[in-house]
Specification:
GO molecular function: hydrolase activity
Number of helices: 11
Pfam family, one: AIRC
Number of strands: 11
Distance between the termini: 27 Å
Shape: globular
Strand content: 15-25%
Oligomer: single chain
Protein name: NCAIR mutase (PurE)-related proteins
Largest sheet: 5 strands, parallel
Length: about 250
């Protein structure tokens, strides 16, 4: 039986587990060595979330091996990012995989009940930004946050953004996903009091330089409270937003 450290401490508190047994359990290996990977089994204890599998560059067999090690040790739900359709098909033959092809995200296990302090809003400048936005949204949901999606609300039609003003102002965290000139992050940063995480995307014509123009614009935002992750890094934005959304839950 695999127990989390929190469960072990709870059982000691309730008197259903001895201190000696608890100490033995906590001393168990913090990782499992598979040869090609060392699966971190204590990451949830340190960071509040289990290890995430980065699918790009791994063979389906390696992904399955890591996934099985995590599930053996009570790690779940498991998030797999940058998972190609071909790899997803192979992984899906070994387990019940919920695959989202557009953002290339795979999920094994049931989503947890949201338990954050509020709601994360993921907004995109355009429809072309949705794959990156979905990576952010799904990441936050797997980690236990409630997510609302506001897609295609870019500044080329500002009335679309302003029609969601109540939602924007009530969010605990905003994720602004935009390519081109990346102006959406500054606009949202000027409307809301919560943190804004800007995600530049590689969407745009020639001189957008694969998202570099949006990245530099977001880094130079005049709106206070805007922070920026790397180009197309929806996962990083969703992970960070979830952490912010759970800060008030800590005791």
């Amino acid at each position: 039986m695999s127990l989390s450290v929190r469960q072990v401490l709870q059982r000691v508190s309730e008197g259903t587990m001895s201190v000696e047994d608890a100490l033995l359990h906590v001393k168990e290996k913090p990782f499992e060595d598979l040869g090609f990977a060392k699966v971190d089994l204590h990451r949830r204890v340190r960071q509040g979330a289990a290890e995430v599998i980065y699918g790009a560059g791994k063979t389906p067999e390696q992904i399955v091996g890591i996934l099985e090690a995590m599930r053996r040790n009570g790690q779940g739900p498991v998030l797999i990012t940058r998972l190609s359709p071909e790899a997803a098909e192979a992984v899906g033959r070994s387990c019940a995989l919920d695959y989202h092809e557009e953002p290339r995200v795979g999920i094994v296990g049931d989503l947890p009940q949201p338990d954050g302090i509020g709601r994360i809003i993921v907004a995109t400048g355009g429809t072309s930004d949705i794959p990156v936005a979905e990576e952010a949204a799904l990441t936050a949901e797997v980690l236990g946050s409630e997510v609302q999606r506001l897609y295609d609300v870019g500044v080329a039609g500002l009335h679309r953004t302003l029609s969601h003003l109540e939602d924007i102002m009530s969010a605990s965290v905003l994720i602004a996903v935009a390519g081109m000139e990346g102006a959406l992050a500054s606009v949202l940063g000027g409307l809301a009091e919560c943190p804004v995480i800007a995600v530049p995307t590689s969407v745009g014509y020639g001189v957008s330089f694969g998202g570099l123009a949006a990245l530099l614009a977001m880094l130079n935002s005049c709106s206070s409270g805007v922070t920026v992750v790397n180009i197309d890094n929806g996962f990083g934005a969703g992970y960070c937003a979830n952490r912010i959304n759970h800060m008030g839950v800590k005791r």
